[in-house]
């Protein structure tokens, strides 16, 4: 896959996708004013120690980020606030709620395939994008038909998303964040209408559960519900879209593994896990040092911003044998695609379920699924993500 990555718009920072290894596991980068963490054990150290490595990053270090409203945003919180909010949210977003979605995920996938009037289609447009979007809209109880509206806000916001930096000498980052914030506001206004409606008319949906969830007598404010719902809408669909597309891309590049998965559906789940390792949809996570630390033999002072490259750690040969090979037989596969520690992806079980159900159905419904190499796939341009945003396929039923 390495020879073609340049054609596919792979971000220049993602050197590990070109078969290159980082020079060191921990490196300061003057251009971004941040420390980049590439090594697996170093990433695990950071992610497992929230007292030393804080998630309160954006407000403290990212110029322009003071324009965001972080109320209710789990990703920016440390204990004890993080534990309290995550417990509240987990009461609404339960494993049962997720498991119960399986039949509806299958139904939506089948309907999307039924609606195809050709066997040459873009997997992202036709299935990988609408599926998670419909699933989240159903969870929230918002109209499925609004998905194009939401896609537009998400696309606009993604188009603006460049490399986040700890310095902003030309004001470019502050301007870009202002534009993303405007898209965010449209989404938040939309969600606020639905939240206000659920307070008056409770329904059997996640927004109602979030509005009603209680820990120690405390409830979420409207603003917190809206900000959290907005995070779910965004975090939950873009990444899951990429997971599906990336898995198809990997299986196409390794036809013998595609044949194994076709022959034995028990291999669908490991194929999804290996895809999370090999092309990790969320490429990095941010942290800040609360104290002076020594990491990977390098001294990092306190109050520094760190970008932990989950995608690079997932290719660290110290942890994964032959890391540049997509291999569905890896056991165990301790990838960091959903991170680790207290911020471990809250939607991981849902993303895995969607990936597993959709891939199985695609294999059932199509005797052949090949990437159309005359129309190259395109990766999302933001360095925070690794994944295809278009994936033209040639299929045979
Ligand atoms: C956090 C990846 C799907 C909701 C995270 C983190 C990662 C991640 C790496 C942790 C970042 C950190 O350590 O700072 C992914 C990937 C997905 C996916 C690769 C799909 C393949 C979803 C879905 C939802 C979701 C479907 C919900 C519907 C969240 C939330 C957090 C989170 C709420 C914040 C958790 C916290 O800070 O405690 N995700 N995610 N994600 N994810 Fe996901």
Automatic annotation (TrEMBL):
<dbReference type="Pfam" id="PF00067">
    <property type="entry name" value="p450"/>
</dbReference>
<dbReference type="InterPro" id="IPR001128">
    <property type="entry name" value="Cyt_P450"/>
</dbReference>
<dbReference type="InterPro" id="IPR017972">
    <property type="entry name" value="Cyt_P450_CS"/>
</dbReference>
<comment type="similarity">
    <text>Belongs to the cytochrome P450 family.</text>
</comment>
<keyword id="KW-0503">Monooxygenase</keyword>
<protein>
    <submittedName>
        <fullName>Cytochrome P450</fullName>
    </submittedName>
</protein>
<keyword id="KW-0349">Heme</keyword>
<keyword id="KW-0479">Metal-binding</keyword>
<dbReference type="InterPro" id="IPR002397">
    <property type="entry name" value="Cyt_P450_B"/>
</dbReference>
<dbReference type="InterPro" id="IPR036396">
    <property type="entry name" value="Cyt_P450_sf"/>
</dbReference>
<keyword id="KW-0408">Iron</keyword>
<keyword id="KW-0560">Oxidoreductase</keyword>
